[in-house]
Amino acid sequence: MAEMTLIQAVHDTLAEEMRRDDRIVVLGEDVAARGGVFRATMGFLEEFGEERVIDTPLDECLIAGVSIGLALEDMRPVAEMQFADFIFPGFNQIVQEAARIRYRSDGDFQVPLVIRAPYGGGVHGALYHSQSVEAFFAHVPGLKVVLPSTPYDAKGMLIQAIEDPDPVIYLEHKKTYRSIKGEVPDERYTVEFGKAAVRREGSDLTCVAYGLMHHYSVEAAERLAKDGIDVEVIDLRSIYPLDMETVLTSVAKTNKVMIVYEDNKFLGVGAEVAAQIAENALFELDAPVVRIGGPHVPAMPYSSALEHWFLPDVDRIEQEMRKLAGY
Question: Which of 129, 173, 214, 215 is catalytic?
């Protein structure tokens, strides 16, 4: 058991898996000689060589398309989109091809592809380095979308993603890369997709979050605990498949629920979670479902003050928790 940052867990796990399985190849912009802009593949070129660690042109459509071809040839590509914001040139390949090849071939072909992408704001990255893209891909049958928020989950979910016979969008919140540390077992293990984690048990209200917002929600809940308000915090970890069973069980216990996500609030992941709660647990609720999300503006601003306005923070989450608890 070693303590490490989330980005270190990604780096070490990917290296261990490449040593274990020579079908795994890494490709993307600057992943080889530079080791990635966040150093997720630092040292890979020297250890595994240029046939398994491939610097691509600045062409996300190419990265996605080549990865699909490799996967169809029984390789295990792990493609890096340098920032999640850059993924859209490859959107057609991912959505129209990777997600649908198993269906269109009646199960004759599968696409065991992992696409890693740093997402999210709070790092002063502005328009093209701060976006949350999970809702776009979670809407598409045939794709799995996961967002590990701890080093433990980063390792277990990356191994699970590599082993999965279908394409997985593996999103890493860039602000958690070095700010979040945790213990990671030395042995090989997986974290099952579609299983949320109860990060903090409570009885007064349920808070559902993921990624960076899960950490903020736990911190806000600890503040409320000092005043005798007991908040249960659930980290979804996996957007598709989505573990509503854990959420609904918690709602039945607390009878109040809020959902926190930094993506645009309108039609975000929280909208789906809220809809399923309304469909399946309406009469368990003692208050309306509360959603906290980003405002409906085109992108996270560059200005520090406006970035702070856009991104939900611990103070705002705490304030909304108090209001809901007293409803």
Answer: 129
